[in-house]
Amino acid sequence: MMNRVTTFAAAAFAAMLIVSGTATAFAAEQRKEELSESYRGSQRDNVAYQKIAPFKMFDNLYYVGPGYVSVWLIPTSAGLILVDTAQEPYVDHIIDSIKKEGFDPKDIKYIVLSHGHLDHFGGAARIQQLSGAKVAALDEDWKMMEQFGTKQGKGAWMDTAPKRDMVVKEGDVLTLGNTSLKIYKHPGHTPGSLSAEFTVYDNGTPHKAFLFGGPGPRNGATGGAQFIESMERISKIPGIEVAVNVHSWLTSYPYPGGGILEREIKLKARKPGEPNPFVDAAAWQQWLKMAKDGAVKNLEDEKRKAAAK
To answer: What is the pTM of this model?
Structure first.
């Protein structure tokens, strides 16, 4: 009886929304919540929910990761570059997503790791073994990963630290075929957070893309101060038009344009001749300001915590 009453009440509520003309708005708000950082974070361990479909963002950039943490595929004239790998139990999903977009995972030549947190590097060893790819990271975060060792995953596979291949540094340029990634060191999230600048193409038109490897300050006042310094340096890089975020929810609602999954919806609805919704230099500048303001407040909080001890 209770189930029938509950179902009837829900139906009545939905009917009321339709009559009042607010059903569409209600659905839109619900969709916003599903795309928000807080909701996706709460569903982090919901494997089925996180296995979103891959999609093409630019001629030479594809999203192939789960919903919470980004994995980027960059096809070049000489093979594939993968940026981050997520962790188990999502590695099979990443491999399948690469195949669905028409590529062979065995053609991955480089795996570039944005930083040494498990949700970004946990699947690297397995994909490294599958493809023979070289794994690139900054020295400080290689050390972080190597301290991790091995951890049992939720499925049959285990997250492991990849074997050290390439130690990159600020100013290095990683080139594969017709594509080059300029490497930056932007500590604050981790001691060796890696950023990369490269060119993406939208129907042949070039745009400057930037992957910021450290999405927020960590590690107390020291990391907070490093993050602010990194933000200052990034703000001086001219011409960035495309944000290649290491988490899909970064710059999501309520900020203009939304994050990766919000913009994907717009991309699917794009008509011939319309701009790519991922090309948004103004939103990038706004996010930089927002992130810096938040980092300044974070540093003040961390200093207060340290002084209170």
So the answer is: 0.86
